[in-house]
Amino acid sequence: MKDLRLYNTLNRRIEDFTSIVPQKVGMYICGPTVYGPPHLGHVRGPIVFDVFRRLLMQQGYQVRFVRNITDVGHLVGDADEGEDKLQKQARLEQIEPMEVAQTYTDAYNWAMDALNVLRPSIEPKASGHIIEQIEMIQSIIDANLAYQVNGSVYFDVEAYQKEHHYGTLSGRVLDDLIAGSASRELEGQSEKRSAHDFALWKHALPEHIMQWSSPWGKGFPGWHIECSAMSAKYLGLEFDIHGGGMDLLFPHHECEIAQSTAAHKHNPARYWMHHNMITINGQKMAKSLNNGIQVSALFNGDHHLLSRGFGPNTLRFFVLQAHYRSTLDFSEVALEGSEKGLKRLLESFKKLESIVPEKESNVDIEAVEKAIDAALSDDLNTPIAIAQFFELAKFINLAIDKKAALNVQDLEKISNLITVYFQGILGLQTEVEAHSDILDEVMDILITLRSEAKTDKNYALSDAIRNRLKEKGVELMDSKEGTTWKHN
């Protein structure tokens, strides 16, 4: 395979990739804050970084892939004041915050499994690494780059700026940020010396459930310090790649760099990768627009923006049809297009076994292989790689129609490309997904059979149908209007 080149957000250019330790790669990816069900916004990053991880593995690298779970310290509004997102959800559901965390961690991993995203090598939880966070905060205080106020600890951005550059990743200039906020009061932030200082540790009020003892009193960690401490613990003080969404670039990743530089004297990662956002019908996902879609709803169609559900393989294919650094606009029409395109590919691949090889070949499969390899190695250009699989499908169909000649070597190469690149690196399944219309028809039959069983007072059969479906993650919901179903 060709040498790998990546767009490094840190230097704003595509660079040759070289790992710190030969043939070993350490990757840290910012994972979810687990206070609700996984939704469309959670889908793109995991798929992108999964493909990148698979590509590295195919190139012979041993990859330690760390993706965290944020289960404490992420406050509503991503600010330093307000209620913890998990604690707020726990109050609404009237359960323990850690119950919320476990429920939605399980739901997130269920969605990732369905999308064929490999499980991380390590999945650390912020709540399980309080000691490491406290130790890192203390080292920043010792470097005179943080200060304590009323049991809270804040990072001193202006003190840091004297020897370092706050804004090295995002390109923002601190003087401009200060000037822009000069006329605004520090609402709820009177403890801070500057509006741009950020919390490393927050004093907890008695009603705050998630709190720990620290040298500064009872409290909880700030959102940014969690990733800095966990990445250092599992990947070392300097590692190869840090990834996440573009929405995390500032302030989250900028703060990570500042914290790690203050504590360890250097940037934590050599390469910073950021994927762009998913929009819905040209609009940003927002609660006010009521356009957020849960992953389960994408699969079963239970959403007002969808007329039916789509399989996880289709969703993965849809994501990979756009370059990871470009905006991806979601719509049912776009998803239907991806479904049709994927189906064409898979149906062509199935024809491969029925082709009788010719003695001579008149197609260049090697050129296609080089193009796929070049595309993936050039900043993970998955849409170009997928376009080459449509080229392979064309060759297969031409050979079926006796308009092209494929020899034994061609057939072996095509089969290998499908196995290694399509399945192995892109992570796409080669089985055609059952159309949701058929699934709807099957469910209608089962619901009718159950209704008839209840009418005949055959409650054992009725309960058996419900229970067997529940075992498969399908819930039946009875009401006056009839019975409906959903996939959990």
Description of the molecule:
- By secondary structure, the protein is α/β, with parallel strands linked by helices.
- It folds into three domains: 5-145 and 160-168 and 224-275, HUPs (Rossmann fold, 3-Layer(aba) Sandwich), CATH 3.40.50.620; 286-425, Isoleucyl-tRNA Synthetase, Domain 1, CATH 1.10.730; 436-487.
- 44% of the residues lie in helices and 15% in strands.
- The chain has helices at 44-58, 85-93, 97-114, 130-142, 157-161, 174-181, 223-235, 249-264, 295-300, 312-320, 332-351, 365-377, 382-400, 408-425, 436-455, 459-471; strands at residues 5-8, 13-16, 24-29, 62-67, 146-149, 152-155, 198-203, 219-221, 239-245, 269-275, 278-280, 283-284, 328-330, 474-479, 482-487.
- The protein has a four-stranded parallel β-sheet with strand order 4-3-9-10, sandwiched between helices.
- Helix 7 crosses helix 8.
- Mean pLDDT is 91; it is low at 182-188.
Question: What is the compact description of this entry?
Answer:
With 488 residues, the protein is an alpha/beta fold. The chain is 44% helix and 15% strand. The protein has three domains: 5-145 and 160-168 and 224-275, HUPs (Rossmann fold, 3-Layer(aba) Sandwich), CATH 3.40.50.620; 286-425, Isoleucyl-tRNA Synthetase, Domain 1; 436-487.
